[in-house]
């Protein structure tokens, strides 16, 4: 393989990507190459990643627990803080048990390991996150893809496998378009079709209060690096599933545990997530405001949701790049997504607790 040729192919296809060096992030502002923008790219939806550090409190954690155990959880890295934090999660969410992983990506790779070599058919939404797609593949599971949010087709697909064990897998809030799964409909389908389990990836939903209930879901995975503003992942499940994970999940068995600082931050931010619900309330207000302005500008759209993720799709790269560049000249940073992340070039906009209505107006004014 010629590395240069491979790179050139990516450039010709307009799918070449580069790492930007971020110099600073402060509330809604981000500084890249000495230029400061209003940041519409962060998943720190509630601003919890920017909570100030209480150095005394953190120092006490280091004195009590040490800094880093440099071992996987199964060997000698299972700090007692893990147990405290996992208990805390179970007190907030309707699951018997849970296990923290090193990332949301790992959580989705880990969970499918428990189904490996079992007779199971996975039913996966066409727009599920890459970590779900990779997890299914790595565990060698058979799958049926249903069109995005098309639960009539899913219903029909499920009915073709009456005697098999079935697993429905969906994101709750879809990471690129901000569309939302109908969890009520999915729990109903699960009950209608015998031997069916439901797994939800709640990476972009955790802490935002956009669903009334998470009852009747068998397995809930999430990233802790979105609204919670930390690093890590979690699998909420039964105690039996947790034990299976400890025995079978390769990302948990074969990777070192998180350092103490990380566990401290998860515990602290979880506390703020639940004690400062005004953050999520403000975000929902901003999302409504965006939707009202978007409806006025572009007309109604059935898939516009209250999630903080918004998007605008383009026919081709050139149109998307033009608007992306125009936003940059107006000191606005959005995410430019293209294949293979999405099928059609698009700008993804994520709203955060730090934005205000004027920021949203500025953004929409700069759009076509
Ligand atoms: C839906 C979804 N699941 C999982 C992940 C992976 O989470 P993490 O970034 O913690 O690895 C992401 C990250 O973008 C995501 O959007």
TrEMBL record:
Transmembrane segments: none annotated. One of its GO terms (biological process) is biotin biosynthetic process. GO terms for molecular function: 8-amino-7-oxononanoate synthase activity; pyridoxal phosphate binding; transaminase activity. Pfam families: Aminotran_1_2. Keywords: Aminotransferase, Pyridoxal phosphate, Transferase. Its cofactor is pyridoxal 5'-phosphate. SUPFAM superfamilies: PLP-dependent transferases. It comes from the Bacteria. Gene3D superfamilies: Aspartate Aminotransferase, domain 1 (3.90.1150.10), Type I PLP-dependent aspartate aminotransferase-like (Major domain) (3.40.640.10). Residues 36-362 form the Aminotransferase class I/classII large domain. Homodimer. This is Pyridoxal phosphate-dependent aminotransferase family protein.
